[in-house]
Amino acid sequence: MMKKILYYLVPLATAFLLCGCLKDMKDGELLHGNREVLISIDLPGELASLDKSGFKVTMRNTKIGNTYTSETDAKGETRIDAEYGNYSVIISKVADVGGISKFLHATRDFVLNKDGQSAGTNNLEIKATARGTIILKEVYFHKTKTADGKANYNYDQYFTLCNNSDDVQYLDGVGVGFHTSFNSGKSAVYNKFWLGSTSTELRDSIPVNAFGFVFPGEGREHPIQPGEEVVIALSAVEHTADQTSRPMNLAADNVWAMYIDRFAGSAVKAPAAGVERLECFCELASGNSIVLSISSPAIVVYRLPEDPYEYVKDGAIKGRPYGKVMYQPTKYQSMPSIMVPKEGILDGVEFRSNDTHVPRLCSDISLQPLFITTASYSGQSYIRKVDESASEIVGRTVYQDTNNSADDWIPLDEPTLCTEYKNR
Question: Which InterPro entries is this protein grouped with (predicted)?
Fold first, then answer.
């Protein structure tokens, strides 16, 4: 009897094993392999006469982070051989359009497998965006250690704004905001809520922390000359060498404080005497201090389309899917956000702590985030690259602004204000 059972079981097991091998082969054919991708561009309207060559093409595998780069030829085409996977393709170039330097760009997400692509990468329509005037030059958010290195020092975050244009600009009404998602992420519902109806395109309004701060003035009270800089500090005081490993003076003449009396006794310090304060037009955020991520923030410079107080006067209504001020309806139901229209964004930079994290800023603001691995409390800062050719032409420092955080920004071992403080 036992021999008969074995007689039937052995062929049966062999059949199952063979089926399993065949299935693995089939899955392997579907999941592993390479295929050539044709990427081409279309220049509509006023862009039609521009040269199609020289567009930078970046194709990134959104699951594992592998990146391919190329440039378009005279026909506006390029071909990239890549392994199967989920991809995001980014196309960019800076060009003169009607006498104005503009940033040209397009993006597309697609799946590449043995059957081809789930979405076409042919004739991607190029959009033109005006280059920044008032931009972020440096952002310091990681914080640092105390002077003896035994504890964390929490009071020294700051941002530097710069007039990167050739004309006088005015800071009146200009604000700086932090994306409400706080840290970067890839699967949190909170992040995905800020995507549009297709769940792939970012919505046109950027949610920022509902402590709203802008420069005061009626329009022309605070001019900023070409190349001139101003600093915005969360704790606008002098941070001395006996307090911190990154000493700096955040109470200098060109520093503005992002502070209101409600923050007294919190994680930020009251500004030193004589330091001017930004105007707070919105205090709908919870808590008693403004909070900025120390690992992976997204930061925008903006100017609202109307008087800031009028813009937020109706507040937020829970459950309302759209509005000038909104509640996030799932994870943080008590946290409202000021919804800044995309058209009101002057500049933005985004950092992500994992190369697979989804972007939070739409491509008109930043094509892709800067991937960073630096630990919190490292004392490291980030600054824009210098545009050497533009700087040589105008005779002053001009910073690179291609609307691509990943290309425009580099790390610094210490903030520039710390270096200047040490070299006094």
Answer: DUF4876
